Amino acid sequence: MSFIEFYNSALNTSIISYDDxxxxxxxxxxxxxSIITDxxxxxxxxxYLNSGIVEMTxxxxxxxxxxxxxxxxxxxxxxxxxxxxxPSDVQMTALTDCEAEMxxxxxxxxxxxxxxxxxxxxxxxxxxxxxxxxxREKDFLSKTAEERYAEMFRTHAQxxxxxPVNKIAKYLGIHPESLSRIRNKMNS
Length: 188
Fold this sequence. Notes:
The protein is an alpha+beta fold.
């Protein structure tokens, strides 16, 4: 699904050409391991992921922590930095080769002042980001690592094999050895 298909689906519109969108959209490619947004960089765009996997990490006083993964058909950005135009406290990295479509901060800001549809989609994307974050926080407080992994496997099974075990373990907040035990238990 391309961004224009996502846009049409979310807003129940039938735009055919990218020229008819309220902002310019540009295709970008990121090689595996490429940093999309670095720590302390001001996020200048929001992205729609056509293919690949992106990881979001944060530096703690001890080590780097895994905040989230983004998969095909998802919007992503270092959102706090994007919204405040302040230096990012997270890093966005291409975990695999990725193809995305991007909208610059300036173009989106300009579209918000002239397009109801741009505002509607922006609100929908922010609402979804909030709900995803709230669910992750609740899951960390109310579910075991095994339950969180089972849900991740259920919702994103096609991507799991492309994510290194140590990154999945960091995402779940456990050691890789614990994840191995969980995987062995699920496979028996």
